[in-house]
Input
Amino acid sequence: MGILRALRCPKCGWESPSKTTFQCTSCKVLLEAIIEIGHLTRSHLLDIRKRTDRTIWRWFEFFPIQDRLAIVSLGEGYTPLLKPKLLSQELGFTRLYLKNDTVLPTGSLKDRSNSVGLSKARELGFKTAAVVSTGNAAASVAAYSAAAGLKSVVMVPRETDPSKVAQARAYGATVVLVDGDYDNDIAGLYSAAVQEFGWYDCRSTNPYRDEGKKSYAYELFDQLEDHIPNWIIHPTAGGTGLYAMWKGYNELLSLGWAHRLPKLVAAQSEAAAPIVAAFEKGLSDIEPVVVKETVAESIKIGNPKSMGWRALEAIRGSKGTAVALGDDEILEAQSLLAKLAGVFAEPAGAISVAAARKLRTQNVIGKDDMVVCNITGHGLKQPSVVRLSDDDLRPIPPDIDALRKRLGGPLP
Ligand SMILES: Cc1ncc(COP(=O)(O)O)c(C=O)c1O
Output
């Protein structure tokens, strides 16, 4: 079982007497789930590796869930780690890997978080879970709530791709589209609602759920047979992924299982890059930015206040970097990823490949460095960005001459 020692303030060390108070009463920062792992020895690692479970729960001891029966799992984790030959050649790498999280149960990385978050909700006896989201977390919370037997309420901005709205609705969630600015109006309404209705809050302000993405570290450690990548590039919005990967790798290092740490890279859209801006200015915390339109809608967050500063710590602690990409670069990476590696990701999910390409061109990343790009959301989440021509949509008669004409000559 996972041994939760405390919910502790990362600034002043205060420990919450309650399991549902998530914020430090004096520092106002998000508390951290402290998991007891000091007793684990190398024989535990061998034991973990003998387990047949191919989900994040293979590493059960590292998550804040005491009761195995409370676990809500849809088979999340242990996603393919691909070594794409043609894409690597195109981008100039010899050891490029893609962590393909598009195949997670609801099509995005959020399932890593919500499997842990909803398991805790069940352990704590909640009846309704809620989240405010740019879309992917909404679908994921809806699915895991359904499997856990909880009701769910999800709020999304009105411009959210209808495919994401449909997905959350299909799982039985009450989906509320809200007009207004995400970081202020929508998040403000949501916080007031959580307060008033007492829902289980599945945002990144939930320290249990934030432990879920540590699973990247454990899985990569397994899949790369104890090798530690030189670089891991993560599509970044709230900063939870960077924080959690850093924590996971540090746990493995502290146990003497891993021999070093990877450099972590935040990849953000130029239209919403508060973490990149704070990194470049040498700030220790985020200055909120006003977001603009971008194809990377799932990572369009201007004020990552709970985890942004921790993501900065992870980037700096790891000697990594942060990079902002324009829409053209993101769409090009999405297209290369699909056409050369066979992985169809939404633009936000493909931004790590755009960042790898840029950092390779700038020679920040070396040709022979081992690089992992997390591919965090499926292309069908946002199909509207794939441009179709008139010919793509115009049917031909069932006739070989018409087919020849349509092909514009024989295919090789
Ligand atoms: C597709 C996708 N990638 C990446 C992220 C980044 O999240 P975080 O920075 O919290 O790990 C999100 C969610 O916000 C997302 O939906």
About this structure: The mean pLDDT is 96. The CA atoms of residues 45 and 81 lie 21 Å apart. Residues 182-197 form the longest helix (16 residues).
